[in-house]
Every structure is written in structure tokens, then in C-alpha cells.
Amino acid sequence: MSNENRNKKAGWNFDNSYARLPDIFFVSLIPEHVPSPKCIIFNHSLAEALGLNPEVLESKDGVEVLAGNQIPEGALPIAQAYAGHQFGHFTMLGDGRALLLGEQITPSGERFDIQFKGSGKTPFSRGGDGKAVLGPMLREYIISEAMHALDIPTTRSLAVVTTGESILRESYLPGAILTRVAASHLRVGTFQYVSQWGTNEELRILADYTIQRHFPEIDAADSNRYLMLLKGVIGRQAMLIAKWQLVGFVHGVMNTDNMTISGETIDYGPCAFMDTYNLKTVFSSIDLHGRYAYGNQPSIAQWNITRFARTLLPLIDGDHNKAIDLAQNEISNFSRLYHNHWLKGMRAKLGLSNEEQQDEALIENLLNMMQKYQADYTNTFRAFTIEQLHEMDLFNSSEFKQWYKQWQDRLNRQKKTKSSFKQLMQRVNPAVIPRNHRVEEALKASVENGDYSVMRRLLHVLSEPYAYSPEQVEYATIPSNCSYRTFCGT
Ligand code: AMP
Ligand code: MG
């Protein structure tokens, strides 16, 4: 079959707008050849939404493409350059083990980056081998797809293939490549890179590109457009972080290179979902001082946005002090915007669709009690939603009983039917989240025994987290051991 025919059948429809940017932004190179690729998991519904043909991509030829051995027509693989603050320290980074194939234009005209993660060394690999291993790539697949189903903006996962290589980590592990799909891979760190090492003209090109791609509502001729870009990014991040907090998601490594401009969650390394409610929750073994703890995420996001704003200063105004004032003014809105999203979301979690002055106190009192009685975050709201308040110490305490009465009185003042506020709660309180012990169980069966059925079942129950289906009940069980640790799975 000719390359063109194969392409048509698979449904690839690439554009390469990023590769048309000036040279400073990327390096062109092709993925390393791998010995014997095998498809482990493939996302049919995502493929279809992208205009891709699952049957063709899962075939032998298709898997050669997903492993980087065949480059589909129209793709122009590049490694993107970026920098970033990692745990507060600025450094040059870039795609050290990832390659952007190009941008797939979907049948409805949307544009998505198609990126390989684990496809070999690049000029940005520093000491690394450019490879990825099966466990962490499946972990990213599971959690990113769970986030999507929870209605949280995120990069998606199209496929994981094994490469047939053994990769040395703490032991030899199966090599793998994840195909990641994203609105773009523009990061705060992309702007930091150009701000540090590029010209003002290159910075302007990047900012204009970003506006066109992610904020088309901003007028390209508006002299205020770079301030509007800052405002747009602030708005999206305020919304995103509120959504994380509302489901108890701990990203784990909120370095500026892991914060997108599009407002999607990116980079599922040491992330995990909180079980017992505690603002200090940290999972990552490398986050020794709790910089990226659950309760710190909003202030870290604001810190990252301040780094982003700094890069835009020369574009915002020729007068440096004036630019700082204008940017500072926007940044100072972040906490209010974040708090408004969070409060609205918390009200919904309690079935409240109108507003009363005392709501915040009601919510804070509940959270304080959850922390005191070490209540499971997800299951507390799940119990409220299904009205099964037993089993948890929290529910048996007299202070909770008092609080519960206040909450019921508040619900009754809404003059809404019970079924309407129960519906609201069911729409926002997940019956199931990717609990760490369940994710680990699925990964262990996959990596150690080649048994993918546990993962498939987990993916299935996570695909509709608000369904409250009978099969989800067993997935609500909390782990016996809460001292879970995650590792940056490189
Ligand atoms: P991450 O922790 O995935 O956000 O990656 C941080 C930086 O390390 C990025 O520049 C990655 O490309 C790079 N990196 C991570 N793992 C590897 C690897 N195995 N080989 C080369 N570079 C890597
Ligand atoms: Mg990263």
C-alpha cells in the first residue's frame, strides 16, 4: 500500500503550524526506531473524535506508526524547546523524550497536537535516555482519561504501545510510547525560554501564535492584546485549579514547564487523588518540603502565572513600570477568580444552587471536621449524594450532627425539590475516582503479568464517574494503607 493510501485510511490530516515558527522554537528529528512494537491500549472514542480510523491504527501498519517506526504523511516531527522553574529553580528543559508529530485537524475543524512520549533521545535529553516505560505511560493514560471523564480540561491519551525494548530504571522494564493528544503543548516554560534566550520579536511571534490558537476572541490588532492574553490564561488556570481542588486532585509537580497556556492539565508524573481530606496532602517522593501539596496548588498556580506575566512585560507596554502595574493588576484577580469558581463548585457539591452569605462558613466548617475526623474526601460527598451516612467516624460525631441540621435547613430554604438538588450533587460528586490502590493494582497486573483486564475494567468504571452504577460501588472502597508515594516515572 502506498504511504498516501495508508494515510487516507488511517485518517491522518496534519498541519504543522508550530514547525512553521522560527527555528529557535524547535528541532526537527525523527523518532528512534524500535524493535517490535505492540499495541497495549487504544482509545477508540478519542480516535473517532479526531477523525482517525481505530481499525487501521490498531493493525500492524498502524502500530508501526504509533511506535514511531513509520511517519504518517503530512507529519513533521519536532522536539519543542522550553525552559521552566522546577521547584522554584529556573532551567533549560525542552522535549527530552517527546516528539510532536504535528497537529491533527479533526473533521469538525479543531486542531490537536499529536505527541509521542518516550520516542527516544533529542537534543534536549540532557543525561536521559529519551525513553519511557510501560507502567508510567499506562498511569498517564488512566489518570488523564479519568480527568477528562470528570470534566476537567486535560491532555488526552490515544494509545500506549510497548516497543520490545528493556529499559533500565530501578530494574529492566518494558519500554513504551504514549501518544498524547493536547490542545497544544504551549507551556509557561515555552514563554520563559523565548523570554530568556530569544528576541522580543520572537516573543511577539509566540504570543501572537498563542492568541490565534487559544484565544481567537482577542482582536489581533488590539494594542492591549498581550494583557488580554495574560487575563485569558489567568481565567483558564483559575478555573482549572478550582476543578482540581473540588475533586481532590494533587498534580504533584506544578513546575512552570508543566503548566499549559491552554488551561489543560498536563504531565501525569507523580500526581494522585487525595483519600482522607488534608490540605497538606503530598504524594510525590521528590516533593520533600510539600511545595506542591494539595492546599498549596492555588498559590503555586498564581506564582507560575507571575512567571508567565514577567515574560510578557516587554509586549504589554514599552514603559517597564507601567507594564508591571498593568500585569500586577491582572494577577491580583487570580485569587478572587479561583475562589469564585471553587465556592460555586463547593455549593454544587452540597446541592446548593443559590447563594447565601453564610455558605462559606458552612463549607469551611465541614472541611475542618473532615480534616479532624480524617474523613475520605470523595466518599463524604458521595455519602451525601446517595444519602447513606454511616461507616465514617465523622458522621457519628455530635458536631457533625449539628452541622448536618444546618445544612438541611439551608437546603430547605432553596425551595427546590429534593430530586433537583440531588441531581445537582450527582452531577458534581464523583462516585468513583482513580484511587491509588486501584491504579497500582491495574498497573501491576499489566506490567508484571501482561493481564490488561484489570486496567480495562478500571478504565470502564472511570469513564462515567457520575453514573453511580452498581459496578462502581466496590471502587469506592478506601485503601487500608494511606501512606502512598508516587515517583517521577521517567
Ligand atoms: P517531566 O518530569 O516529565 O516534566 O520532565 C522534565 C524534563 O525532563 C523534560 O525536559 C523532559 O523531557 C525531561 N525528561 C524526562 N524523562 C526523560 C528521559 N527519560 N530522557 C530524557 N529526558 C527526560
Ligand atoms: Mg513535564
Describe the structure.
The protein has helices spanning 3-10, 44-49, 54-58, 60-66, 134-149, 188-197, 200-214, 225-247, 297-316, 320-331, 334-349, 359-372, 377-386, 393-396, 398-412, 418-428, 436-449, 453-462; strands at 14-15, 26-28, 38-42, 78-80, 83-86, 89-92, 98-105, 111-117, 132-133, 156-168, 172-182, 249-250, 272-273. It has 490 residues and is α+β, with helices and mostly antiparallel strands. Helix 8 runs parallel beside helix 10 and helix 12 (359-372) runs antiparallel to helix 15. Strands 1, 3, 7, 8, 9, 10 and 11 form a seven-stranded antiparallel beta sheet that branches. A two-stranded antiparallel sheet has the order 2-4. The two termini are 37 Å apart. Among the domains are: 3-182, no CATH class; 188-342, no CATH class. The protein contains 18 helices and 13 strands. The mean pLDDT is 96. Residues 257-258, 267 line the site of magnesium ion.
Describe the secondary-structure layout.
Layout (H helix, E strand, L loop, with lengths): L2 H8 L3 E2 L10 E3 L9 E5 L1 H6 L4 H5 L1 H7 L11 E3 L2 E4 L2 E4 L5 E8 L5 E7 L14 E2 H16 L6 E13 L3 E11 L5 H10 L2 H15 L10 H23 L1 E2 L21 E2 L23 H20 L3 H12 L2 H16 L9 H14 L4 H10 L6 H4 L1 H15 L5 H11 L7 H14 L3 H10 L28
Antiparallel strand pairs: 1-7, 2-4, 3-10, 5-6, 7-8, 8-11, 9-11, 10-11, 12-13
Helix pairs in contact: 5-17, 5-18, 6-9, 7-9, 8-9, 8-10, 8-11, 9-10, 12-15, 13-16, 17-18
Bound molecules: adenosine monophosphate (AMP) and magnesium ion.
